[in-house]
Amino acid sequence: LMGLRQLFSSRSKHDTFQTSSTDKRVAELGLGVSGTTELFRSRKNQLYVVKTYFGKEDYESKSEYKERVLHEYEVLRQLSHPNIIQVYSYRVSSSRISLHLEAGSPDLHVLLKQVPISNINPDEMLCLWKQLCTGIRYIHSLDFCHRDLKLQNLVLDLSTGCLKIIDWATATKITNNEPAVGLVGSKGFAAPEMFSSISYDGKMVDMWSLGIVLYYMLHKKLPWKTAQHSDPDFCRFQTQECGPSSMVQLPGDQATSQILVVDPAKRVSIDQLWTHQWFQGLKSCGESPCGMEHFRTFKV
């Protein structure tokens, strides 16, 4: 996908975005259990992503299938934020449904693979992480939670280099402070309460994932495979969690020490993190330039 920025440089405003059956397929971005993700270029040289879901399951009615696969569209059309990927439209064929979405860079997991650990700039990673926190603060203010935050669901805007959160298929809206339900997301980034309880605080789950994402961005590895008692690294962390020799060190000391807290009732909220002096002092693109060129670090 080298050269995406050049392809994307002549895009027009999103509110005038239009697709056509004659648009050119540029690349396949992914093939999963539920469908395919492909990159297209419009006649006006605009790049966009088409996420096509496979046909309905045998147990589903047509209306149930449509409700399931359009969940991401329904969530995204209620959100508008610089750090959240934009949805344009959807298309229904005889047997499949496709979403048309804003294009971004390869995901952050792929981009970080290009960067040797010795070249990781903590200030640059914190810039991107604060942008992620900014997007999460926005959705939490609207009582949404993402529930699948991970490097693979973070991309860069192809024109500005700012971070964008993608893949909202497991996102949910919290009403009347009711808990979120169900084990979703990815093992390495999922909070421990997701494995131990059928219901949980969805916003606190996002906070835990923010901590894991930051750890990975700085160390290019996960602190453990899964936050369960069966994982020896997590068990070791759990016994040291409140001690001075905790195995998981994040920058920010007091500000971040309450993110990876096993008890969600004691975990810091996004608003509490936001008011901390250390967090306020982080430079972040979007608020003002951080002084670093992200596309120099990540070859897009």
TrEMBL record:
<dbReference type="InterPro" id="IPR000719">
    <property type="entry name" value="Prot_kinase_dom"/>
</dbReference>
<keyword id="KW-0067">ATP-binding</keyword>
<keyword id="KW-0808">Transferase</keyword>
<protein>
    <submittedName>
        <fullName>Serine/threonine kinase</fullName>
    </submittedName>
</protein>
<keyword id="KW-0547">Nucleotide-binding</keyword>
<dbReference type="GO" id="GO:0005524">
    <property type="term" value="F:ATP binding"/>
</dbReference>
<keyword id="KW-0723">Serine/threonine-protein kinase</keyword>
<dbReference type="GO" id="GO:0035556">
    <property type="term" value="P:intracellular signal transduction"/>
</dbReference>
<dbReference type="InterPro" id="IPR017441">
    <property type="entry name" value="Protein_kinase_ATP_BS"/>
</dbReference>
<keyword id="KW-0418">Kinase</keyword>
<dbReference type="GO" id="GO:0030447">
    <property type="term" value="P:filamentous growth"/>
</dbReference>
<dbReference type="Pfam" id="PF00069">
    <property type="entry name" value="Pkinase"/>
</dbReference>
<feature type="domain" description="Protein kinase">
    <location>
        <begin position="23"/>
        <end position="279"/>
    </location>
</feature>
<dbReference type="GO" id="GO:0005829">
    <property type="term" value="C:cytosol"/>
</dbReference>
<dbReference type="GO" id="GO:0045719">
    <property type="term" value="P:negative regulation of glycogen biosynthetic process"/>
</dbReference>
<dbReference type="InterPro" id="IPR011009">
    <property type="entry name" value="Kinase-like_dom_sf"/>
</dbReference>
<comment type="similarity">
    <text>Belongs to the protein kinase superfamily.</text>
</comment>
<dbReference type="InterPro" id="IPR008271">
    <property type="entry name" value="Ser/Thr_kinase_AS"/>
</dbReference>
<dbReference type="GO" id="GO:0004674">
    <property type="term" value="F:protein serine/threonine kinase activity"/>
</dbReference>
<dbReference type="GO" id="GO:0005634">
    <property type="term" value="C:nucleus"/>
</dbReference>
<feature type="binding site">
    <location>
        <position position="51"/>
    </location>
    <ligand>
        <name>ATP</name>
    </ligand>
</feature>
